[in-house]
Amino acid sequence: MTLTAVEITGYRSIRKIRFPVRQLTVLVGGNGVGKTNLYRSLELLQAAARGTLTDEIAREGGLGSIFWAGGKNLSPDGGFDPKYRTDGYRKGEGNKLQLAAGFADLADGDFDPTYRLELGFPTPTAAAFPNEAQVTHESLDWQQRGKPVNLMERKGGVIWARDAEGRRETVDDDVLASETALAALSGRTEIALVRDSLIAWRFFHGFRTDADSPLRRPSRAVTAPALASDGSNLGAVLATLHHIRGDRVDLDRAVADAFPGAELVIPEVGDFASFGMRYEEMPKRVFGPHELSDGTLQFLALAGALLSYRLPPFIALNEPENSLHPSLLPVLAQLIVKAAERSQIWVVTHARDLADAIAAESGILPREVIRDDNGTWLDGLTQIGEFDDD
To answer: How would you classify the pairing of strands 219-220 and 272-273?
Structure first.
C-alpha cells in the first residue's frame, strides 16, 4: 500500500490542506512555518490505526491545545471554549480535527482506498472527560470502476461495514467514542489491509546522542531487519547486514564517503551486537558507540534506518540534518535517494543544502513549506490539491 495523498484540517498551524505524496517527498522551510505539524499529522494517522489516537492527543494537551491556531476560541473568562469563535472562523471551524489518507495498492490496481477521520469534543451526555478527543466521523472508501464504494462508515455511535459477501451490516462491536473503528474492526480484510499499512510506517524524529542514548548501548543479539524509531537496535541492524545478509557494500561506501579513511567495525555477535569506528590516524584502536561524536552516531543511525535489511514501506524523517556537519549532507542525500528505490520516503528539513542535494541526486523538486494568515501551505500547491508544475 502506497500513500498517495494527505488531507489535514484544523491541526495547529494547518487550517486546511490537501496534497499528493510521491515515492520521495521533500518538504523544506524555515522555523515556525508548520513543517513538524505536517509530519506529526502522519503520526496521528498511524496512532488511529494502532488505537492510541486519543492518548497521543492527550499528550499534546488535549483537543483544546491542538486545534487550528489561526483564530481565537476564548470564552468570556479567557478559557478555551469551542462555542466562542472569533477572528474569521467560519461556522463549524475551530472545533474539529480532520485527517485523511489516500492509498494505492500496487499489488491490486482495483483497490485504492481512502481513510477519513474526524475528531471533536464530547457531547454533554457523552461518557467522556471534557477535553477528551471523540471520533465523530470515520470512513473507509475505495474506487470500484471509477465509483466510490463505502467499506466502513461511522457517524457518532453507529458503525456499519461490509460483510464477507459485500453486504452492508451494522457493527455490534462495543467501540467507545474515544476509539477508532479502524483499530477495532481490523478483523475485516480491507480494513486490516489499511490498518496494517499504517502501522508499518516508521518515523525518525532525531536520535538521542547523550551519554544515556540507546544508540550508545549494545543491542540484544536478535536479527533486526529494520531500525527501531529510537535507534535502540542499531547494533543489531548493522550486525544483521554484515553477518546475516552478508552485504554491507552500500553501508561501507556511505561510511567511506562520510568519513574518509575511517572503517566501520562490526564484531562477531555473542549475547549482544555492537559496532565501532576505526580511524586512519589511530588504526590499532576501535572507538565504541559510547566514544563516538554526536554527529558520527547520528549519521550511523540514519544509515541504519535507510540501508537496513528490509525497509518499512514508508519512512518519515524529520530534520535528519540535526547534529550533522554540512559536509555529510550530500552523503545523506544519496542514502535517502537510494532508500526511495525500496521504500516510500518523506523528508522534512530546514536545511536547503540537503533539499538541493536530494534534488540533484534524484531530480525530485523539494516543496517549500510556507505560512500566511490561512495557515501552513505548500508553495505551488493549487486549491484543488495538485502542484502547478506537475
So the answer is: antiparallel
Rounded to an integer, what distance in angstroms lies between the CA atom of residue 299 and that of residue 295? 6
Local structure of 67: helix, strand or coil: strand
- How remote is the C-alpha of 132 from its chain's centroid? 23
CB 263 within 8 A of CB 257: no
Burial of 7 (0-12, 13-18, 19+ CB in 10 A): middle
CA-closest candidate to residue 313, choices 219, 205, 199, 229: 199
Judged by DSSP in three states, 64 sits in helix
3-state secondary structure of 277: strand
The set of residues, in sequence order, having a beta carbon less than 8 Å from that of 11 and lying 6+ positions away, is 37, 40, 41, 44, 66, 67, 68, 97, 99
Strands of the chain (E only): list them. Answer: 2-11, 14-20, 24-28, 96-104, 113-120, 134-144, 147-155, 158-162, 168-170, 202-204, 219-220, 263-265, 272-273, 276-279, 282-287, 314-318, 344-349, 367-372, 375-378
Closest C-alpha among 278, 304, 286, 279 to residue 214: 304
Return the bridge partners of 374, or none.
none
> Checking DSSP bridges between strand 219-220 and strand 202-204, what pairing results, if any?
unpaired
For residue 277, how many C-alpha atoms fall within 13 Å in the half-sphere facing its CB? Answer: 23
Q: What is the pLDDT of residue 143?
A: 78
Interval 249-302: pLDDT, tens: 999 999 999 999 999 999 999 999 999 999 999 999 999 999 999 999 999 999
DSSP 168: E
Beta pairing partners, 387: 381
How is residue 42 written as a grid cell?
502522519
Closest of 312, 336, 311, 307 to residue 324, by C-alpha: 336
Tell me how far apart the alpha carbons of residues 375 and 158 are, in angstroms, rounded to a whole number: 33
Distance CA 335, CA 303 (A): 7
Do the Cβ atoms of 333 and 24 come closer than 8 Å?
no
> Whole-prediction pTM value?
0.90
Residue 315 β-bridge partners: 202, 345
In a 3-state reduction of DSSP, which class is residue 101?
strand
On whether the CB atoms of residues 303 and 284 are closer than 8 A, the answer is no
